[in-house]
Amino acid sequence: MLASLFLLITNQSFAQHENVESVELSEKMILELVEELKNKIDLYYVEIASIPDILNQLEQLKGDSGLANVKSQQDFTRFINTVLQKNDQHFSVSINPKNSGLQNKESWFEKLARLNFGFERVDVSDNNIGFLSFWGFADLNETSKEVISNHMREIENVDGLIIDLRDNGGGSGQTVQYISSYFLEGRQHLNSFYSRASDSFEDSYTNPAINFPNLSQVPIVIIIGPKTFSAAEEFAYNFKHMSRAMLIGKTSKGGANPWQYFELQHGLRIAIPTAKAINPITQSNWERVGVQPHLYTELEDAEQQATKLLMRKLTKH
After folding, report:
1. What are the start-end ranges of the H helices in the chain?
2. Neighbouring residues of 227: CB distance < 8 A, sequence distance ≥ 6
3. Quick one: CA torsion of 199, 172, 234, 211, rounded to 10 degrees?
4. How many Cβ atoms are within 10 Å of 18's Cβ, its own excluded?
5. How many Å apart are CA 252 and CA 96, to the nearest integer?
6. pLDDT tens, 76-121?
7. Is the pLDDT reported for residue 280 higher than 50?
8. Is residue 164 classed as helix, strand or coil in its secondary structure?
């Protein structure tokens, strides 16, 4: 039961939220939504110690002039998300597509599948340095596995590798496991996820059946930045604390708590973090603080810096 819940959460947890056509909200409807948000967060939010403070923030909104200026669904989502996301980047109130009368927009995972499962650039330089850039962790299925495997074969024999996650907004936790397995030998404990609903943990491991001996040994530099979010942060955080890669760039966005949707009144829904990542090495995660690089550098210079770092390391051997 826990495994099914975990897969549901991780498959949802990193999708981007799309807005659709907005409708007007009365003052009564807005106050009803605030109360419903309080109830849902109290029931489902994983960071239990933070709940009283969040509920107090929401209660105080009832006298806030900003809330008084809210007239529509879109006004409400913009206003309330500013408040909620100060507590957790994965909170998100949005218009519920199924109640909007409009056809659902393309989802994050549908867009990834349509656009080469997020892979933008896979190549090898004259110096035999590989470069792997992708903007999301696609849903894991037989097709995405084949695409990932083909790209890994393109870089299989490199001497060093740059993984560019600076524009990676996240995606499937299962795909984090799958891609990580190409760069780590054997069965490695990547992360654990605590679920509030079941009050239990689910461990995440690499797949030892994926055996790419050279890729599991080559030096790796990972580029991160303020747009690096969620599943992409997990990947970078894991590799940093396993001492498998050097991280360069800027601090990432800071979202470590997988979420799921809950319906609200008046055509809205809320994404509430219902689980949290716990790294086996740090016994912590990157929530709010982001993943910190080993070397801070301007993002426009990051690829050049990464190449220099790898060449310097390779010439020492």
Report:
1. 2-12, 27-44, 51-60, 65-68, 73-84, 108-114, 142-154, 173-180, 231-241, 302-315
2. 166, 167, 168, 169, 253
3. 110
4. 13
5. 28
6. 999 999 999 999 999 999 999 887 655 567 889 999 999 999 999 9
7. yes
8. strand
Distances (CA, A) of 1 to 6, 93, 201: 9, 27, 12
Strands 160-164 and 220-224: parallel
- Please give the single-letter amino acid code of residue 283: Q
Phi then psi for residue 189, to 5 deg, are -80, 110
Secondary structure letter of residue 278 according to DSSP: E
Gap between the Cα atoms of 135 and 44, Å rounded: 29
Name the H helices within 69-225.
73-84, 108-114, 142-154, 173-180
Helix axes 231-241, 173-180, angle to 10 degrees: 40
Q: Strands 259-263 and 268-273, how do they pair?
A: antiparallel
| 200-205: strand order across its sheet | 200-205, 189-195, 275-278
